[in-house]
Amino acid sequence: EPEVTQTPSHQVTQMGQEVILRCVPISNHLYFYWYRQILGQKVEFLVSFYNNEISEKSEIFDDQFSVERPDGSNFTLKIRSTKLEDSAMYFCASSKRQIATNEKLFFGSGTQLSVL
Amino acid sequence: AQSVSQHNHHVILSEAASLELGCNYSYGGTVNLFWYVQYPGQHLQLLLKYFSGDPLVKGIKGFEAEFIKSKFSFNLRKPSVQWSDTAEYFCAVSGPNFGNEKLTFGTGTRLTIIP
Lengths: 116, 115
Description:
The complex is a heterodimer of chains A (about 120) and B (about 120).
Chain A: E1 5-7, E2 10-13, E3 19-24, E4 31-37, E5 43-50, E6 53-57, E7 65-68, E8 75-79, E9 88-95, E10 106-107, E11 111-115
Parallel strand pairs in A: 2-11
Antiparallel strand pairs in A: 1-3, 3-8, 4-5, 4-9, 5-6, 7-8, 9-10, 9-11
Chain B: E1 4-5, E2 10-14, E3 19-21, E4 24-25, E5 32-38, E6 44-50, E7 56-58, E8 64-68, E9 73-78, E10 87-95, E11 99-105, E12 109-114
Parallel strand pairs in B: 2-12
Antiparallel strand pairs in B: 1-4, 3-9, 5-6, 5-10, 7-8, 8-9, 10-11, 10-12
């Protein structure tokens, strides 16, 4: 089965630093997502991206966050100035069509971000 | 805000025991329902999903779930668990009132199977 890949698997950064989390979605997928899971809490939606623009975002996804699809294969999440509370596992996901259309969502293995 | 509740935070069972994990969602009209599993160190994998039709849905690895609209529930079941079912299980919902582009997850249930 095709996979969504995420790098790195673990990133450690100092508070206030910028981080970029990278994802390679499945090649023929058109919808891309970021979710995160703070330790011990639920998986939370951050943002969805389609046709080179954000289609939906949560209240967590404030001005410190941005997403980009810089080329035909990568999908990145940037946090401009990290805070301690940004420490979480960040999951990238992709799908061929909207998930509301009985479409399967494929998740990556996640990047564990630790902000010190 | 629309929400998903999983009341069992940690379930411990012996092998061959039967499993039922609860999932309830707040009212939201039309819903699509999912169960995901996360094995230790791995990514989230889809176990099964309900979009329409037969409310009893069969998934991979012998799991099934039943959508009961009147109870706003989508409980996950397996008649006989194995040690390899040890994992975290997440219920999730999508739909017009939850956001068509996103899944809203429950807090997860950690399942530990004792050999």
